[in-house]
Amino acid sequence: MCGNTILEKWENLGFLSEIESDKKEQLALHYEEAYVYLINNRHDDSIETFIFPIIFRLTKQTDLELKPIELIDKFRDFINRSDIREITTEIYGSNIDMEAEIVNLFINEIKN
Q1: Where are the domains of the chain?
Q2: Residue 10 is inside which H or E element, if any?
Q3: Which residues of 32-59 are buried (b: 16+ CB within 10 A; e: fewer)?
């Protein structure tokens, strides 16, 4: 079970407002695990920008059993691939559309 404080924390931040009630606890736990891991394992990348929307969409859209730490490591490998860097830089430069496209590309790859 999810501790009420973890659930309340993520609800108060607004991160659980658009998810079904039966998935809120699971999502809160995934967010907390990712948050703790990212705080304790700082890197020079901007993975925080992407990982929370990825966790949200995968929890909402699939029955995929998430392990946030493995997901973070897979995403880090994904974002550093030259083909992904080329596609996103050529098309989007550096803006919010690029971030959304990267999230979409990664989710499609994970689901397949």
Answers
A1: 4-111
A2: helix 4-12
A3: bbbbeebeeeeeeeebeebbbbbbbbbb
